[in-house]
């Protein structure tokens, strides 16, 4: 069944408001307040301020399992260039990852399920998670006792906007999104006068050698059939052309589909950094610190198949897609089994799917690529993607909460 017109109209209004008023990770004060108010209006029992600005609403509807639906509250430090009439009004901040669409869809799915509570039985939890873009929010809400404050879910569900055709929903057969590690590297040289390099140990040259050498880790040390990424996203050394600095710093992101591969990549970075530091005769050994990580996102097979079947029955097979897996990363797996070490609950199943947001005009505009997530020009086809997102969530929840 299509989303009733009044629910869709409200969802569109909410989306436009969220899109125009984005907030950065950890600063989602207004967004959290709106989301809490929307859930309260559906007679959810609402808890706020979980792990920062986290919001959870619980809708109890008789016996049955507990299903948690998650959306993210935060936006990105990106300056919007879509030219849309409802573009961000906050300079340098933009909902460039579609989290506004996730939130509007989730609130509308709760309305739909609250209105049709004869069609399902169990407990629904709607979570507005803060700080997803910094990959800290899931951990924060869990360590702040999310699963003591709401019923522990049997299944956690989420969807994410992706630049595939709007109106489609995509599931993966294997991993959906990569696991990640973030590494900070410091190379210690010996600073001095740029005109007397023989008296210095130049960390800029050492850092350049590290960056070049690291390119071989994926190209030459990784099985070509395996997907892995090693990106040096930040490189900083010195401030003046005529001064050799003391230190150089690198910020590195690793992505892969298994923890083994991430371990191997991490060890390779440590080895290359150590060796280049020695090759440059740096006076002090380098530092390599893992400052962040996120688990591989893998849906639970049988539960994901049940959700896929329910969505396929609702949308028709032509709107269902295969998702090949992507090298983006998420902290959502922590809410499920991958976070057992944090929340102490084993056996929480996860299902996740990608929600198409590219307009048919955009898809047809070959060879110009459709601006994807995190682009300043990212502009979901809301008219098509929003009702699809609402229906995808409701169909998934109903499949797992049968009457
Ligand atoms: Zn993002
Ligand atoms: Zn995102």
TrEMBL record:
| Pfam families linked | M20_dimer, Peptidase_M20
The Peptidase M20 dimerisation domain is annotated at 179-278
InterPro entries named in the record:
Amidohydrolase, Bact_exopeptidase_dim_dom, Peptidase_M20, Peptidase_M20_dimer
Q: Which PANTHER family match?
A: METALLOPEPTIDASE, PUTATIVE (AFU_ORTHOLOGUE AFUA_6G09600)-RELATED, PEPTIDASE M20 FAMILY MEMBER
Please report the name of this protein according to its UniProt entry. Answer: Amidohydrolase
The species this protein was found in: Streptomyces spiramenti
Lineage, uppermost ranks: Bacteria, Bacillati, Actinomycetota, Actinomycetes, Kitasatosporales
């Amino acid at each position: 069944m299509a989303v009733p017109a009044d629910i869709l109209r409200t969802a569109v209004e909410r989306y436009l408001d969220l899109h125009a008023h984005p907030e950065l990770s950890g600063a989602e004060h207004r967004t959290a307040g709106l989301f809490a108010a929307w859930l309260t209006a559906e007679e959810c029992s609402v808890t706020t301020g979980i792990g920062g600005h986290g919001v959870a609403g619980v809708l109890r509807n008789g016996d049955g399992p507990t299903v948690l639906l998650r959306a993210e509250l935060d936006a990105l430090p990106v300056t919007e260039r879509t030219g849309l009439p409802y573009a961000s009004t906050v300079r340098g901040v933009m909902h460039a990852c579609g989290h506004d669409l996730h939130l509007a869809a989730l609130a509308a799915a709760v309305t739909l399920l609250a209105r049709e509570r004869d069609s399902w039985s169990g407990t629904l939890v709607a979570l507005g998670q803060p700080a997803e873009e910094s990959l800290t929010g899931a951990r924060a809400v869990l360590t702040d006792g999310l699963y003591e404050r709401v019923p522990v879910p049997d299944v956690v569900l989420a969807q994410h906007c992706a630049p595939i055709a709007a109106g489609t929903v995509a599931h993966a057969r294997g991993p959906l999104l990569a696991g990640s590690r973030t590494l900070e590297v410091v190379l210690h040289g010996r600073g001095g006068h740029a005109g007397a390099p023989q008296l210095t140990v130049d960390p800029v040259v050492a850092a350049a050698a590290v960056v070049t050498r690291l390119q071989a880790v994926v190209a030459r040390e990784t099985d070509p059939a395996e997907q892995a990424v090693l990106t040096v996203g930040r490189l900083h050394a010195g401030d003046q052309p005529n001064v050799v600095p003391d230190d150089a710093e690198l910020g590195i992101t690793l992505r892969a589909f298994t923890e083994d591969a991430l371990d191997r990549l991490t060890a390779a970075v440590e080895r290359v950094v150590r060796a280049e530091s020695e090759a440059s005769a740096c006076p002090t050994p380098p530092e390599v610190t893992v400052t962040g990580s996120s688990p591989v996102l893998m849906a639970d097979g049988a539960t994901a198949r049940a959700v896929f079947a329910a969505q396929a029955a609702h949308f028709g097979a032509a709107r269902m897609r295969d998702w090949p897996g992507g090298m983006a990363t998420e902290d959502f797996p922590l809410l499920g089994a991958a976070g057992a070490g944090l929340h102490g609950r084993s056996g929480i199943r996860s299902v996740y799917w990608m929600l198409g947001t590219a307009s048919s005009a955009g898809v047809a505009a070959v060879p110009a690529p459709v601006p994807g997530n995190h682009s300043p020009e990212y502009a979901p086809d809301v008219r098509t993607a929003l009702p699809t997102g609402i229906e995808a969530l409701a169909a998934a929840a109903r499949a797992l909460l049968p009457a």
